[in-house]
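Milestone M4 deliverable, item 7.
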Amino acid sequence: MTNPVQAYFDRAALDFDSIYGGKNRLGSWMDRLFRKDMYERFRLTFETLGEVAGKKVIDIGCGSGRYSVEFAKRGAALVTGIDFAPEMVRIAEQNAELQGVNECCRFIEGDFVRMGFDREFDICLAIGVFDYVERPRAFLEKMMAITKEWLILSFPSKSPLRTPIRKLRYWWKGCPVYFYDRSAIGTLVRGMGQERIHKIPGQGMDFFVAVQLGGG
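Output delivered:
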């Protein structure tokens, strides 16, 4: 039976990828206004990590591969992207090939929770993922088990205006969605390492969270 989140993102893959480029001027302006946290968490990821050359990276819920490709362009030794939407994986592979980094990127169709891993990674990324995770602590613990240096995460914030609208919109699409406040995020990541919890300014914008494992 198809997971409703998987089904939604498989249908929406092309539209999702167009947020990062390919829309007309009006569409791009609208995204910059209402989805500015998507651009900001991308910037914060690479600003926080600094030099990533030679690192092994796993990008959970990699979507169309925009983060994975950027890691590879910045010299990461190996980037593994995982997504359970087949169309997302197809677009990610296409984007890596177009950018000339397909040799150090591999994209896997599958469910992270059900997968086993035979290697450790330096950096583990889950951006735009916890919106749809029913059991976030177990998910985080699995991330920690395969990661040596950094967890890079985002969480959708609770907003009196945007949360009800988004819940209704995703309910209509058959896709569950979850929201967080700073206290809930702090409880989730407590004891994992040295955490930085940054609320992206704006009503309903995401929290960006970086956890340096071992306390840094």
